[in-house]
Design goal:
Shape of chain A: globular
Distance between the termini of chain B: 45 Å
Number of strands of chain A: 10
Number of helices of chain A: 9
Low-confidence stretches of chain A: none
Radius of gyration of chain B: 22 Å
Radius of gyration of chain A: 18 Å
Oligomer: heterodimer
Largest sheet of chain B: none
Mean pLDDT of chain B: 91
Largest sheet of chain A: 6 strands, mixed
CATH class of chain B: Mainly Alpha
Distance between the termini of chain A: 36 Å
CATH topology of chain B: MetI-like fold
Mean pLDDT of chain A: 93
Number of strands of chain B: 0
Order of helices and strands of chain A: EEEHEEHEHHHEHEHEEHH
Low-confidence stretches of chain B: none
Amino acid sequence: MIEVKNVSKWYGDFHVLKDCSTSVAKGQVVVICGPSGSGKSTLIKCINGLEPFQKGAIAVNGTSVGDPATNLSKLRSRIGMVFQNFELFPHMTVIRNIMLAQVKVLGRTEAEAEERAMKLLTRVGLVDQAAKHPAQLSGGQQQRVAIARALAMDPIAMLFDEPTSALDPEMINEVLDVMVALAEDGMTMMVVTHEMGFAKKVADRVIFMDEGHIVEDATTEDFFGTPRSERAQMFLSKILSH
Amino acid sequence: MNYKWDWGILLQEPYFGWIWAGFGWTCAVAILAWMIALSLGSVIGVLRTIPHPLPRAIGTAYVELFRNIPLLVQLFLWYFVVPEVVPREAGMFLKRGLPMPEFWTAVVCLGFYHGARVAEQVRSGIGAIRDGQRQAALAMGLTTTQVYRYVLLPVSYRIIIPPLTSDFLGVFKNSSLALTIGVIELTARSRQIEEYTFQGFEAFAAATVLYSLVTFAVMTLMHVTERRTRIPGMISLEAK
């Protein structure tokens, strides 16, 4: 479903991604972890073309992301993305946030979009918040709305960029619960996160990145059992020590 | 000082009519110019935020040109120079064909000048929105135009209401310069009354009151707009 081949990216002179290759099969959940500045977020933003890359190739469902002839808007509409800071549109109500792209991109009618939005709000447990504005919700609620907004487009895959990093500790689980349920439904997911509990529970594979390299790309059992690189071992011992 | 006050002059014809006619022209110049400024400024401001060098360069060139030349000089350039340097037919149209050339020149000149200022405000409003918003909107499959139309501009206009208010007021005040090319607006009428009656204090007092009235109306309008479009739950926009 998602193929990343020898991707390199520079910000000016700074080499952010160094020859990264990996793939995600349909229905797989892949967790990407690593220290900050290692290129995790950049990598998943390359997958839907939010960040350009200079070398290599990325294909999603057979469509090349880097190809100038690709209709990026169309491709993006099929890949859901959830951001660290939720990025709900502050001037629209919750339900309008979920309806916007359904109407403007997919061409659904207002009624269809509203029905779909209400269904998804029920699914993430926020149906009573539909008429509120994002700033009136807690962080955890905002992130669940953001997930519903992405799901409303019926995506073939979902990308998560540190979805719980901006949340208060007591709100992390309500978001992770939604993500676990999504994974169990068979959604193809790439998740940048430091939530190792989530990784152990639902991930098929874990990718460990450091300084722009994919240092490790292993099944979840192997990664938590016997990570091969010293760097990954150190990272794990640091974040799992408490 | 030996000055004979006569406030009654303001209610006598033709002076009463002059003042209101002048006030009408002031409002006409200012409101039409503001409409140009808002639309043109929005386009130029957006151009300056697009991540491509050409639209940015066009936007920057526009802003620097119209912001850096004194308004009075611009007015003279539009009125005296432009008709001579454009192709002959166009020049003839500006000088002979166009009804009320001084009025339209003032409207266009003020519109372009304030357009540059509005552009800077729109640009700063868009710049104040964190990049994640643009990314989130693009990630949903919206085109760049849709991202501006539905996400960036609605939020940016709300952010820039206070500086836009200043500029909306500015266009009324700057419209008084139009008298230099012959628009008989409020300030020109006041001078005229002074010349006819020697009651300059009264005439300019009336003008002052009318300018204050219109700026007060603009402030009220913008304040109501700000309150109506306030985003529920957002502290930064709620604070007054």
